[in-house]
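2024-03-11 09:14:02 INFO worker-7 job=invfold-0412 stage=load source=structure_tokens
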């Protein structure tokens, strides 16, 4: 098996943008990201770790693609969440990540899904999801994907070392909000997404509240 090509962030982005000339498909971008990998060193200018929360760090965004680096310290994880009906791909550059995949079964307000432009407005008070599989992802693993059929998952840092995990995420279209699930409380909610840094520059160093809302990402 051939080793994937290691490249620079700029060259990776130029290759990614070439897909904008035609149809953007799950398989095509997955193959590209499998063949062209960005190392942890290449992503270091966008890598910020915080003990209180994982960080979402914007690398590139246009009307069709959003590229982020997410940094995770030990034990950090997302809520279970959707991807707003968009496609998504994840490569791990450092550490080990666990991806728990779920399937929507039913809720007490299925009519909330009948809305233009987003997958669901959220707000149900009874939710049933089936946990399907858990994929363990490392630097040498296949690219993890979400698509219109498998669109609900949870990601967590499962690495036992203390170096922290770095993952690269690509979305098409860009995702500004998504639905998060709290199965213990039987609630789902729509969460506006934000960035900790943009293009290598921290947005705002904010004090974390005592009971912060969960940060969500794919």
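2024-03-11 09:14:09 INFO worker-7 stage=emit residues=218
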């Amino acid at each position: 098996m051939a080793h994937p090509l290691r490249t620079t962030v700029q060259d990776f982005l130029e290759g990614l943008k070439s897909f904008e000339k035609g149809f953007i498909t799950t398989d095509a971008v997955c193959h590209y990201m499998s063949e062209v990998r960005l190392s942890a060193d290449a992503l270091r200018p966008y890598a910020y770790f915080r003990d209180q929360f994982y960080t979402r760090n914007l690398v590139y965004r246009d009307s069709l693609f959003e590229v982020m680096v997410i940094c995770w310290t030990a034990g950090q994880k997302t809520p279970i969440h959707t991807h707003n009906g968009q496609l998504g791909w994840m490569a791990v550059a450092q550490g080990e990540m666990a991806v728990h995949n779920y399937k929507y079964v039913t809720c007490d307000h299925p009519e909330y899904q009948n809305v233009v432009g987003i997958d669901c407005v959220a707000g149900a008070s009874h939710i049933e999801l089936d946990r399907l599989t858990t994929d363990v992802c490392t630097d040498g693993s296949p690219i993890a994907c979400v698509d219109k059929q498998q669109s609900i998952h949870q990601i967590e840092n499962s690495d036992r070392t203390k170096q922290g995990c770095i993952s690269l995420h690509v979305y098409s279209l860009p995702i500004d909000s998504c639905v998060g699930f709290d199965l213990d409380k039987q609630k789902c909610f729509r969460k506006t997404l934000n960035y900790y840094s943009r293009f290598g520059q921290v947005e705002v160093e904010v004090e974390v509240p005592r009971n912060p809302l969960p940060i969500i990402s794919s």
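2024-03-11 09:14:09 INFO worker-7 stage=report msg="The mean pLDDT is 91."
2024-03-11 09:14:10 INFO worker-7 job finished
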